[in-house]
């Protein structure tokens, strides 16, 4: 086995203050074992602790039925593993009712690594599948407020600009996407919702949810109101209109890494009190650092990650040099005993980035039976990562300042939701999003709608009859 440098392992596990696993927006670390080495994150435990729902096979089945799309490989492989109210979003999609996608990024450095692209790749897939508006929040204020004394506003704003280009390179559709920076967008309807959120979050709650204390600056304590307020459609009148009786009832689906859940757990509580639609969530797990399960990619440790700016040569040498291997010491031993794919970084990365399920299963089997050697597995991983990073770099090259402007402009978005839905979306009426849900033309009504209409008709008839007989009485 290629043992990682102990110093690197210690550095990557350094944000672990305790020996227990800890996952929150500011710190992600696996349990530190007796040997001082971090263990892999136990995601089932998080589902239990956070009170989320595990994504089950039946959920994948329903997803495919409702959307007509094969679930993303992240979903098929349990990389996207947990949710809150995903079923309600699927129900809405089925009925053709509006919702939007919301995700974000804290711009804390210029170098995005492959771990950062996971939630965005997944979000891009969801945008294609649902054809709904997507809002991407750049929390430059968060990264300033939570950063060290040396971090300046100028720096985080410049990270926003470069990070937005990287995010756009995931392939989002500019007609359906709005990207904003907190520093630039704060005000108007968005700020009104921030104020509503903050009025319903006590210091006690912020402390309990995020672990703040007397020495935490007050910006940190307030920030949850900002990240939360983006979950509300009423924060974006240029997309959803300004009738709050309609917009406050349009929910969002938030694809995010599981560490962001505390923000939205709190937001869901506040939403209930504001009588706003609660955000739904779909959670992803983390991509381990090159040093193996239990370590975390760090934007400031070159050898911990593959960066999106790495050349094909960089990728090759990093995987060969640093990728933790589950193989045996000698070829003979490996042929005899086989390797351990579950801890092998090259295999873990293929699990994230290789599309073909059968090919992946074959690789795992051959590795575990010793047919496939570590060097061969690494070569497969290198080839896949090189292709993935190259495709990203090609798209990144085409992103100009004008592209950025277009994505960040407060413009109307064009989207159609579910083309097979049976409810009218664009003729005003039901949703009130006149013309804004795109070109959906509707021939059929759902059973529920017909039922509702029949009921309304019956009530109206009853009322008319009553009034008629009343009129008769007074005659
Ligand atoms: N706080 C997140 C970060 O530090 C950024 C963020 C804001 C976000 N809103 C989000 C991430 C919604 C996921 C979903 O990166």
Automatic annotation (TrEMBL):
Where is the protein found, in the record's own terms?
A: Cytoplasm
Name the Gene Ontology biological process terms: tryptophanyl-tRNA aminoacylation
Enzyme Commission number: 6.1.1.2
The signal peptide stretch is none
* Transcription regulation is among the record's keywords: no
Keywords for this protein:
Aminoacyl-tRNA synthetase, ATP-binding, Cytoplasm, Ligase, Nucleotide-binding, Protein biosynthesis
Q: What family is reported?
A: Belongs to the class-I aminoacyl-tRNA synthetase family.
Q: What is this protein called?
A: Tryptophan--tRNA ligase, cytoplasmic
């Amino acid at each position: 086995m290629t043992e990682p440098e102990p110093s690197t392992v210690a550095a990557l596990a350094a944000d672990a203050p305790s020996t227990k696993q800890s996952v929150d927006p500011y710190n992600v670390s696996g349990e530190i074992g007796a040997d001082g080495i971090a263990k892999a994150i136990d995601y089932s435990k998080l589902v239990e602790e956070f009170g989320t729902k595990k994504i089950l096979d039946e959920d994948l089945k329903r997803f495919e039925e409702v959307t007509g799309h094969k679930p993303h490989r992240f979903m098929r492989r349990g990389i996207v593993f947990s949710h809150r109210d995903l079923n309600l979003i699927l129900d809405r999609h089925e009925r053709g009712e509006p919702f939007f996608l919301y995700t974000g990024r804290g711009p804390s450095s210029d170098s995005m690594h492959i771990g950062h692209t996971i939630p965005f790749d997944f979000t891009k897939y969801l945008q294609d599948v649902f054809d709904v508006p997507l809002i991407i929040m750049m929390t430059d204020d968060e990264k300033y407020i939570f950063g060290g004394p040396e971090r300046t506003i100028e720096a985080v704003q410049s990270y926003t600009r470069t990070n937005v280009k990287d995010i756009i390179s995931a392939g989002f559709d500019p007609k359906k996407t709005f990207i904003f920076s907190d520093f630039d967008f704060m005000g108007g309807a968005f700020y009104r919702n921030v104020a509503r959120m903050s009025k319903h979050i006590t210091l006690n709650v912020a402390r309990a949810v995020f672990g703040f204390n007397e020495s935490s600056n007050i910006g940190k304590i307030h920030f949850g109101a900002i990240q939360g307020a983006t979950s509300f459609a009423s924060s974006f009148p240029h997309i959803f209109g300004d009738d709050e009786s309609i917009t406050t009832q349009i929910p969002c689906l938030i694809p995010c890494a599981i560490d962001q859940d505390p923000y939205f757990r709190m937001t869901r509580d506040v939403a209930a009190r504001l009588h706003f639609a609660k955000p739904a969530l779909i959670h992803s797990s983390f991509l381990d650092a090159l040093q193996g399960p239990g370590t975390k990619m760090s934007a400031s440790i070159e050898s911990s990650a593959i960066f999106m700016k790495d050349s094909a040569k960089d990728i090759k040498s990093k995987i060969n040099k640093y990728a933790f291997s589950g193989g045996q010491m000698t070829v003979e031993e490996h042929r005899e005993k086989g390797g351990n794919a579950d801890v092998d970084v090259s295999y873990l990365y293929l699990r994230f980035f290789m599309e073909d399920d059968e090919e992946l299963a074959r690789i795992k089997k051959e590795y575990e039976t010793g047919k496939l050697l570590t060097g061969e597995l690494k070569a497969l991983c290198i080839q896949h990562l090189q292709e993935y990073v190259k495709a990203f770099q090609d798209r990144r090259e085409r992103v100009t300042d004008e592209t950025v402007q277009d994505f960040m402009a407060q413009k109307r978005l064009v989207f159609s939701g579910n083309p097979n839905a049976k409810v009218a979306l664009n003729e005003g009426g039901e949703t009130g999003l006149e013309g804004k849900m795109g070109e959906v033309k509707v021939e059929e009504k759902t059973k529920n709608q017909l039922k509702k209409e029949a009921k309304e008709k019956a009530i109206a008839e009853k009322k008319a009859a009553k009034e008629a007989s009343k009129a008769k009485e007074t005659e």
